[in-house]
Amino acid sequence: MECPNCNRKDLGKIGSQQYYCWNCFIEITVVNEEVKIHQIESDGSLSSLNDLFTDEERKIQW
Ligand SMILES: [Zn+2]
């Protein structure tokens, strides 16, 4: 799959349904054929970026 933000395919797998984009430093979680996007803040907390993407953009594109 590719990163919904930068469309690059160099995602690192960090969990069974979780990926990390080394290019834009976001965490991508696959849930029910959709991706949820979080940014990892400098203090280690996650903030949701889902609102920045349309439903179409958050569909999985393998
Ligand atoms: Zn990316």
Biggest pleated-sheet summary: 5 strands, antiparallel
* Count of beta strands: 5
Give the DSSP E fraction (strand runs of 2 or more residues): 35-45%
Shape: globular
Which strand order spans the largest sheet, edge to edge or round the barrel? 1-2-3-4-5
The end-to-end distance, rounded to whole angstroms, is 4 Å
Whole-number average pLDDT? Answer: 89
Number of helices: 0
Query: What bound compounds does this protein have?
Result: zinc ion
- Rg, nearest Å: 11 Å
Q: How do the helices and strands follow one another from N- to C-terminus? A: EEEEE
Secondary structure: helix percent: under 10%
In the predicted model, the low-confidence regions spanning at least 5 consecutive residues are: none
Helix/strand-derived class? mainly beta
